[in-house]
Design a protein that fits this description.
alpha/beta, 16 helices, single chain, eight-stranded parallel sheet, 361 residues
């Protein structure tokens, strides 16, 4: 039995962290759904940058949109929505079968809005309306300015993938923003079942401390942070406040593991996948990691709900001079800046492709 199926049986959703028009046109994504138990998909500016830059699959669509007077950000979001609505339709049977728990795809608002609450909310509402698909999540960063937008988006009925979370504390803040949005819907008589996931990034922790800690601690920080976050997640799911909203008909916000591709070439390619096997979570992984996982037949054990040995491991990092709280804030800030850089690169690719295709036309 493929490890991908084992994870699915365990109760963890496998989402692909990739989207390209070639994946859709070739039937590869459909194959992943049928053969590798993939039940959802995430995207980000870097993914679209690579997809558009490295393929001619978008050229005809770009040329047509240029003829319609579209350019820049407007042109990109039309391309992205075309891809993601097609993907959403492929996952729609899973969404329906799971009563809205699974079968989601994700589209990110412009990273340039990461510190602009009002504009983030307006963009989230607009993109979700334009998509016209119930199983499309809008990605909003869990930054200080993003948290009010997350709450208001949930209150407005817009499903949200909270991105750029790096610690237990950042996760809890995002979970509480979701909860406040749902409670406001309950108080005003609206349906409380708005979909959401909270994405905790894993491998970037280990990349950040590489070469700065004893060899025995290599590639252990991200997993320890994930264990600590999972313990908080399980505690929240069992809390009276959360159980009240579930009793009113709300859907739990699931914890999602992001950045699960191994950065260290010396580490196993499925290091984080095996370590983060946990029921009622999502693991979104790069295509290469998904394919590597399919060749494994054993997952060993599932993650402990009590955090396992995470505090012992984190104390060892503290003794080695790593300030977890400071690093969490740094990683979130750097992540937001990285997304902006990727966005600017993507806009550059759109501009250069548009110029070349406009001349060719």
């Amino acid at each position: 039995m493929k490890a991908t199926l084992l994870l699915h049986i365990l109760g963890q959703s496998l989402w692909l962290d990739n989207i390209t028009r070639d994946l859709l046109d070739s039937g590869t994504l459909e194959g992943y759904i049928g053969e590798l138990s993939v039940t959802g998909l995430t995207s980000n500016p870097t993914i679209f940058d690579h997809a558009i830059k490295n393929s001619k699959a978008y050229d005809a669509a770009i040329r047509n949109k240029l003829d319609e007077g579209k350019s820049g950000e407007e042109l990109f979001f039309e391309l992205a929505l075309e891809d993601l609505t097609r993907a959403a339709d492929l996952f729609r049977p899973i969404y329906e079968r799971s009563n809205g728990v699974d079968g989601w795809v994700s589209l990110e608002v412009s990273p340039l809005l990461a510190h602009d609450t009002a504009s983030t909310l307006a963009a989230a509402k607009s993109l979700h309306k334009r998509a016209g698909r119930p199983n499309l999540l809008i990605k909003i960063p869990g930054t200080k300015e993003g948290l009010p937008a997350i709450e208001d988006a949930i209150f407005a009925g817009v499903p949200v993938n909270v991105t750029l979370l790096f610690s237990r504390e950042q996760y809890i803040a995002a979970a509480e923003a979701f909860l406040r949005g749902v409670e406001r819907r309950i108080d005003t008589g609206l349906r409380p079942d708005v979909g959401s996931v909270a994405s905790v990034f894993v491998s970037r922790w280990d990349a950040a401390v590489a070469g700065k800690v004893p060899a025995a601690l290599n590639n252990r920080l991200g997993i320890a942070i994930a264990q600590r976050s999972y313990q908080a997640y399980r505690d929240l799911l069992g809390s009276p406040r959360w159980q009240r909203i579930y009793n009113a008909g709300a859907r739990p916000q699931r914890l999602l593991w992001a950045s699960t591709g191994t950065k260290d070439p010396k580490a196993p390619d499925v290091l984080y996948i095996k370590a983060l096997a946990a029921p009622f979570t999502v693991n979104t992984m790069p295509e290469g990691t998904l394919q590597a996982l399919a060749d494994y037949g054993d997952l060993h054990e599932i993650m402990s709900a009590d955090g396992g040995d995470c505090e012992t491991v984190l104390n060892r990092f503290g003794a080695a001079g790593i300030d977890i709280d400071v690093l969490a804030a740094t990683l979130q800030d750097e992540g937001a800046k990285s997304f902006v850089n990727s966005w600017n690169e993507l806009m550059g690719v759109i501009a250069s492709k548009s110029a070349a295709l406009g001349k060719a036309g």
